[in-house]
Write a structure and sequence with these properties.
CATH architecture of the largest domain in chain B: Alpha Horseshoe
Largest sheet of chain B: 2 strands, parallel
Shape of chain A: rod-shaped
Number of helices of chain A: 17
Number of strands of chain A: 45
CATH superfamily of the largest domain in chain B: Tetratricopeptide repeat domain
Helix content of chain B: over 70%
Strand content of chain B: under 5%
Strand order of the largest sheet of chain B: 1-2
Oligomer: heterodimer
Strand order of the largest sheet of chain A: 16-21-22-23-24-28
Radius of gyration of chain A: 57 Å
Number of helices of chain B: 29
Chain lengths: 906, 627
């Protein structure tokens, strides 16, 4: 016998219980009702651990029971009256607590107003649920047991049945018990699938699983339907009638359905006979691998278990099998646990597991009675096993002198209950209310004896569970990983954004080389498939501390500043996108894009570089697909798909960049091919130039125009810049200083440098292009092909201007057969010079006056040009029929004159 | 109390008298007002307790002549109150004690005899001559009479009959003036004379009529009908309460009916009903008489009436002169009377009514009654009804099956199928694998045979449910399903093996039903086979059916038909003639409703069959062929 020790904690102390009445304790929520056989019933609050109310009855209370909903308490007093007290109406505190003390228990006097039923010889009561409810009393008088049914609200007597009393041995028992009066124990049993109606407390506990017990009619019991029908007949099952089972002190277990109209035969039937006073009726729940059974315990230790089992060989079918066993008595009080019973013998508290018996343990004929009818027909001796062979051995819990038990507390709603620990309430012989904490009740203590196949199954289950958990964990981990990546990514993106935005705000004037992320462009002609095309090589340089990751896109937009008219208003800009794979710190990415073929003449073009980021790239492909499918993408990322664009640099590719330098010597005259491409001179272009130069107000004399328009159709334009200025800007001080040796022989160094500068300075780049290196050193004249295919002569020479005070100047002359190309080149050279001089403006001061430098001549020329322009405009203004051709011609000549004799830039 | 000084004696007398009168007045005022019942019962209880306390106080001091009258009056009141509290034994003891004290106070010493009638004689002889006590004694004698009645000690009453009757005269004459005076002057005289809760004369009338009823019932139970009749036909007092009057009529009717005058008995029952509409026992007895007379329609009418009266909400207590203090029911607790006037519960009346309706034509009404009955059983309502112990309802599965078969009769096969499903689902897991019965079965009322009878019952119920379902399907012309269910029924019945004990001829009811069920199932399956053109199987089943139970009328006809179809015409004719000759219907009185021949389903036209048979016989005779 494995012994365990329960922890005993005394909660309160009451008087010694009456020796003639079985003491009772019952749970109701956090309250415990204690009846020790005198006039008073105590209500003890287990949460506050103090006595809450004392109910004082007019006479000694022999038995108490709750109503179905636990809202009323029935008390049997003095064997002739049943009182009914509504529990919610009880005072919670003593009416006038002394101010200096904590409030003591409230005293509630139960007057005769609370009398529910007066019945001679009443012993026990139980309430049956239902729409109205029925109160069932059992009483002993006139040599019979009387079962009386009352309406539970009106206490109107409904009906009454009797069972003749058997008086064997009652007096002996009385003496042996030391004067203790045994009361019949009542239980109300439902078929498992019929929960009682209109009961609030039952709804909280699942009926068929709740380990309800009834040592003295406390709870309602549930039996599985088959066992219910086998025990109590099929009729009660038809009307879902609960059955009242009564264990009488003479040992008989009798029963009757509580709501079934009269039928043939005696109303109260006897189920079994324990031949000793019945102390306890209850059910065990059918747990894992064992069946539900009905349990009755006798006072001297006889235990009867009723289960379903297979019928005998003769008939088969299912029958109710009665298993009897003995534990060492006397059994003073019993309460039911989840799997077994706890009972006290007065000297020890024991736990008995009643659920262990499996079906195959029961073989009919030895310990099992096959059908109660047959059993009665044959002798009683045969089926009664000697000893306790069919029962498990009780486990001692080593608590003595317990005379009443309640719990376990996992039954009650709000009680302290730690998993696996069972707490019982006990009342000791001395009237102490004790809380017993069992280390591991029979629910957990009796190590579960599983068969090997069950063990194997359990292990498989556990392994499968482990696998599941692992899978889920790795899934979660990868999700976290990807989220971290996204966050890191986003962080980089934000950093880059801030950087670029700061740059933009800092202004465009900061030099290209200072930008941490920048772009530069090299234009280069290459021959592809028999066609020359201009390839732009765009280099993205990342000198920022951040990494440009996947998701960034380098966008290069090529916008011609001017474009031919026939392409109309449509946007001729082209955008090239290059996804950035990964650009580490101080990395470079080089991309090439074709800008023009040999025939295209729409220079200059503006190249805008920008970095674009799309938030979609933060998402994985699955998330993206999911979002797209849901249509949430737009709402999440906005209508532009979560893209934002940050400008990097804007650069210009002009005619100079597009020149193909052929040689520094004049080519053969026959190599000069007439334009294969028609010159699409546009008025726009002309006007552009006109506008750009009008402000300067430079005019040329009208008479010189014929001279410039050379005979073989070569046009020329020139720009004059003061050598001093240019040299300073280009850093050619040394050469300039030794400068004016002779106007006819300018130092080659200055002109060559200027030419080299003109040809080599790529857009946005500060590197020298190697294109003009070959000829740039030797001469100051370069011959080249322009994109239109025309030959171009670019010459730089030093001339002196001015009559009196001679000013050394550098003249940059462009000669070309195509007017378009000439215009373009002139513009390009002019803009270069402008850029250069603007950059150097702060460094120099212009010292010289220019009064004498042929200013008058220049003014005269300008005057003449202005007059010509006016002349050309007059006919148009007055609406005369000058042909367009003539107007054009006139304007053209004015323009040429302007180009050819520029003002000197000082 | 023991230290009460002598001077205060008269003062005590006055105080106690006042106290007594206060109690009585309180009660009377309430009674005149007619407050609600609950309040009344609470007041009664407090009055009872107060008078008990007063009596205990009075008895706490030695009896003195002056106070004897008061004590006797208080005892009288107390006993009256005790009737309402059903505390008769205690009250009777106190009554005897008071009389003994009165004897002692008046100086009549000596041990009082223990035999109550003798004791009373002594009391009357020794105290009666004192005029002051005479009326009090008579009042107490009434109380004693009531005690005897309520504990069915009719012998004592008979023994003292002479004294009772003679003294009633005295009570009527002597007391009238005094009490009237007391009643009129009210509180003024109360100081002199203690008031009484009920006038003894009213009590006397009630006691008288109750005695008549009790005696009549006793005699009736003993079979002494003519003596009972004599007693019952004594002229009753005109003040008799209606319900008691009706009871007298009913008992008279019972006498007459027992003496073989059913029509006179019916007259008496009618009179009883005229007197008191709620006299259900008269209705019940007339039902029995009608049944005895074979007047089914009248019986159904009476049953209907009986059921509707039983379903009436309980009437408030008829206001008898005594008020709610003494109900006649307390005075008439006799077992013999209650058994004579017992009425079955409303549910069993309803069942009886339903069964009669179904069996005698009005099927649809019967079905409604059956459904009402099942609904009442399922609901909790029956709990609130006062359940009668009369065992008259059949077992619930049988009730379901009867309802099912009546539903089928009313052409509601779908509902029938549902009910049968319920029966099957409830019983099928309880069926034994095999069942071996030894004939004769022991009486089912004896305990030893209970189990196998119960198991036979399960088989019968489940089998009958299958049979009814099969009937439903054949009614719906779903022959395949019908054959399946008939087969299920037959194979279930095959599990039962009946062993005939030698020398036993008479079959038990269960076994007879089993055979009948088997016969019906086989016949049903045979008929279904005919409709599926499986004539050979049909022939086999019909023949087996006739072997199993000869009671199935349609089986013979269908056997003829199937023989005819199979071309075995001579056998068909032979079968026909055999069928005609033994056409006397077998005894089906005890067969349950669900084992009667199905009224619905396929039917044969006997006239057509007869025509064919006769034609065939004629041609045979023409051809001169022997039959």
């Amino acid at each position: 016998m494995a012994a365990r020790f329960a922890v005993v904690e005394t909660l309160a102390e009451f008087g010694c219980p009456s020796p003639s009445t079985a003491a009772q304790i019952m749970w109701s929520g956090v309250d415990v009702f204690i009846c020790i056989g005198y006039d008073e019933v105590y209500v003890f609050n287990t949460q506050e651990r103090k006595l809450r109310i004392v109910l004082q009855f007019p006479s000694p209370v022999g038995h108490i029971a709750f109503s179905v909903d636990k809202q009323r308490l029935y008390a049997v007093c003095d064997s002739d009256s049943v009182f009914c007290i509504s529990l919610p109406s009880l005072p919670s505190r003593a009416p006038t607590p002394p101010s200096d003390q904590s409030p003591g228990p409230a005293l509630f006097r139960v007057s005769s107003d609370f009398l529910a039923v007066r019945e001679v010889g009443v012993c026990s009561v139980v309430e049956v649920g239902g729409s109205e409810g029925t109160l069932v009393t059992v009483s002993q008088r006139e040599a019979a047991w009387w079962f009386t049914l009352y309406g539970a609200t009106s206490y109107r007597k409904l009906t009454q049945f009797s069972l003749p009393a058997v008086s064997v041995g009652l007096h002996d028992d009385f003496k042996e018990n030391g004067g203790l009066v045994m009361r019949p124990s009542l239980a109300c049993i439902y078929s498992g699938d019929t929960p009682p109606q209109s009961s609030s407390s039952k709804s909280t506990t699942k009926p068929s699983l709740s380990p309800s017990s009834t040592s003295l009619g406390v709870f309602h019991l549930f039996l599985e339907p088959l066992l219910f029908k086998l025990l109590f007949g099929v009729d009660a099952a038809f009307v879902n009638s609960p059955v009242i089972v009564c264990g009488l002190p003479d040992g008989r277990l009798c029963y009757f359905p509580s709501c079934l109209p009269g039928q043939a035969g005696p109303r109260v039937k006897v189920l079994h006979n324990l031949e000793q006073p019945v102390t306890f009726l209850g059910t065990s729940t059918g747990t894992y691998g064992s069946q539900q059974c009905f349990v009755a315990v006798g006072q001297w230790g006889r235990v009867v278990l009723v289960r379903i089992c297979e019928g005998g060989a003769g008939e088969g079918g299912k029958v109710a099998g009665f298993t009897e066993g003995c534990v060492s008595g006397p059994v003073v009080c019993v309460c039911a646990g989840r799997k077994g019973l706890y009972y006290s013998t007065g000297s020890d508290l024991l736990a008995l597991d009643v659920s262990g018996g499996r079906e195959d343990d029961l073989s009919p004929g030895e310990s099992v009675v096959v059908g109660h009818g047959e059993r009665r027909g044959q002798g009683q001796a045969r089926e009664r096993p000697s000893g306790s062979g069919s029962l498990q051995i009780p486990v001692s819990l080593n608590v003595c002198r317990v005379i009443a038990l309640a719990g376990p507390s996992h039954n009650a709603s709000d009680c302290v209950c730690v998993a696996g620990i069972v707490q019982l309430l006990a009342l000791s012989l001395r009237g102490r209310l004790q809380q017993l904490t069992l280390p591991n009740g029979p629910e957990g203590g009796g190590a579960p004896q599983l068969s090997s196949s069950q063990v194997g199954q359990r292990i498989k289950d556990l392994l499968a569970a482990v696998g599941d958990v692992c899978e889920r964990a790795s899934l979660l981990k990868s999700t976290i990983q990807s989220k971290n990546n996204s966050l890191r990514h986003l962080n980089q993106v934000l950093n880059v954004c801030c950087l670029l935005l700061a740059n933009q705000r800092a202004g465009e004037n900061c030099s290209v080389s200072e930008k941490p992320i920048r772009c530069r462009i090299v234009a280069k002609w290459s021959r592809l498939l028999q066609r020359d095309s201009l390839i732009l090589t765009c280099v993205l340089n990342n000198s920022s501390p951040y990494v440009l990751e996947r998701g960034w896109i380098l966008c290069v937009q090529v916008v011609p500043l001017s474009h031919p008219l026939h392409e109309g208003g449509e946007n001729v800009s082209r955008t090239f996108s290059f996804p950035v794979q990964k650009l580490e710190q101080s990395g470079e990415m080089e991309v090439s894009l074709p800008v023009a073929t040999a025939g295209d003449t729409f220079f200059p073009v503006t190249v805008s570089c920008s970095l674009t980021y799309s938030l979609q790239s933060l998402l994985g492909p699955e998330e993206l697909a999911c979002l797209l499918a849901n249509g949430d993408l737009v709402s999440c990322l906005g209508s532009d798909g979560g893209c934002f664009s940050l400008a990097l640099d804007t650069l210009t590719v002009d005619w100079l960049d597009a020149l193909q330098v052929t040689t520094t010597t004049p080519p053969d005259s026959d190599t000069k091919t007439p334009s294969v491409y028609p010159i699409t001179t546009s008025m726009d272009m002309v006007e552009d130039f006109l506008c750009s130069h009008r402000s300067r107000g430079s005019r040329r004399g009208a008479g010189e125009e014929g001279k410039v328009a050379s005979e073989d159709g070569l046009f020329s334009a020139s720009i004059k810049v003061s050598t001093e200025l240019l040299g300073a800007a280009l850093g050619l001080e040394a050469e300039c200083s030794m400068g004016p040796q002779g106007p006819k022989s300018p130092p080659l160094g200055v002109c060559g440098s200027v030419l080299r500068w003109l040809l080599s300075q790529g857009p946005g780049g500060d590197n020298w292009r190697g294109r003009g290196d070959k000829g740039g050193q030797e001469g100051s004249v370069v011959y080249a092909h322009c994109p239109g295919g025309h030959k171009v002569k670019l010459a730089v020479k030093q001339v002196s201007v001015g009559d009196g005070s001679v000013k050394e100047t550098v003249e940059m002359q462009v000669e070309c057969s195509s007017m378009t190309a000439l215009c373009g080149l002139h513009h390009a050279v002019l803009s270069r010079v402008l850029t250069l001089l603007q950059g150097a403006a702060g460094q120099q001061e212009t010292s010289m006056g220019v009064q004498g430098l042929g200013l008058r001549q220049a003014l005269q020329r300008a005057q003449a040009l202005y007059e010509q322009l006016q002349e050309a405009r007059i006919p148009e203004a007055i609406g005369l029929g000058w042909t367009t051709e003539r107007t054009t011609k006139t304007l053209f000549s004015i323009y040429r004159e302007l180009r050819d004799n520029p003002l000197l830039i000082l | 109390m023991a230290v009460m000084s002598y001077e205060s004696d008269t003062c005590l007398l006055d105080r106690w008298t006042e106290e007594n009168n206060a109690i009585v007045n309180k009660w009377k005022q309430h009674n005149d007002k007619g407050d609600c019942v609950e309040q009344g019962s609470r007041l009664l209880k407090s009055c009872y307790e107060a008078s008990l306390q007063l009596l205990q106080m009075i008895q706490g001091v030695p009896a003195v002549h002056d106070r004897v009258q008061l004590e006797l009056a208080v005892v009288y009141n107390f006993c009256m109150f005790s009737f309402s509290q059903t505390q008769l034994t205690e009250a009777e003891i106190l009554l005897t004690h008071s009389l003994e004290r009165a004897l002692g106070a008046e100086g009549c010493d000596g041990p009082p005899p223990s035999n109550p009638p003798v004791f009373w004689r002594v009391v009357l002889e020794s105290l009666g001559p004192m005029s002051s006590l005479c009326s009090s004694l008579l009042q107490l004698l009434c109380v004693q009479w009531a005690f005897w009645l309520s504990t069915v000690r009719l012998g004592h009453i008979l023994e003292l009959q002479g004294e009772l009757l003679s003294l009633f005269e005295g009570l009527g004459l002597d007391e009238r003036d005094d009490t009237r005076k007391a009643g009129e002057e009210g509180l003024e005289t109360s100081a002199v004379r203690p008031a009484l809760v009920i006038h003894p004369r009213e009590l006397k009338d009630l006691l008288h009529i109750c005695t008549v009823i009790a005696q009549g019932a006793e005699l009736l139970c003993e079979g002494r009908w003519s003596e009972a009749l004599t007693i019952l036909q004594r002229d009753p007092s005109p003040l008799t309460p209606r319900d008691l009057f009706a009871q007298i009529h009913t008992l008279t009717g019972l006498c007459l009916s027992s003496m073989g005058h059913p029509h006179s008995a019916l007259q008496c029952f009618r009179k009883a009903l005229e007197t008191d509409v709620r006299c259900v026992s008269a209705l019940q007895q007339s039902v029995l008489v009608y049944r005895q007379l074979g007047n089914t329609q009248a019986e159904i009418q009476a049953l209907r009436l009986l059921h509707s009266v039983l379903m009436l909400p309980p009437a408030s207590q008829p206001t008898v002169a005594s008020g709610p203090l003494i109900a006649p029911a307390i005075l008439l607790p006799g077992q013999s009377l209650s058994s004579l006037l017992s009425v079955p519960s409303a549910l069993s009346v309803l069942h009886c009514l339903a069964q009669k309706c179904v069996l005698h034509g009005s099927v649809s009404e019967g079905v409604e009654h059956y459904l009402d009955l099942l609904a009442a059983l399922q609901s909790d309502q029956q709990m609130s009804q006062v359940l009668s112990e009369a065992p008259s309802l059949p077992r619930l599965p049988e009730l379901y099956l009867e309802t099912g078969s009546s539903l089928l009769m009313a052409q509601r096969p779908d509902d029938c199928l549902v009910l049968c499903d319920e029966v099957i689902s409830k019983t099928v897991d309880l069926l034994p694998e095999r069942l071996r019965l030894e004939e004769p079965l022991e009486d089912p009322m004896e305990e030893s045979g209970h189990d196998s009878a119960d198991r036979l019952g399960l088989v019968l119920w489940c089998g009958a449910a299958y049979l009814l379902q099969a009937h439903c399907y054949s009614h719906l012309k779903d022959w395949k399903q019908a054959v399946t269910l008939y087969t299920r029924c037959i194979s279930l019945l095959m599990k039962v093996c009946v062993v005939q004990t030698a020398g036993c001829v008479k079959q038990g009811l269960g076994v007879r039903n089993l055979q009948r069920l088997k016969g019906l199932a086989l016949a049903g399956r045979g008929i279904s086979f005919i409709h599926r053109d499986q004539n050979r199987e049909a022939l086999r089943d019909l023949q087996l059916s006739l072997q199993a139970a000869s009671g199935c009328a349609s089986a013979g006809l269908w056997l003829t038909e199937v023989l005819w179809r199979l071309g075995r015409r001579r056998e068909a004719v032979a079968c026909w003639e055999e069928n005609q000759s033994s056409s006397s219907p077998p005894l089906l009185q005890d067969a349950p409703l669900y084992l009667l021949d199905p009224q619905t389903g396929p039917s044969l036209d006997p006239a057509d069959l007869r025509g064919r048979m006769e034609e065939f016989t004629k041609t045979q005779q023409h051809q001169g062929l022997p039959l």
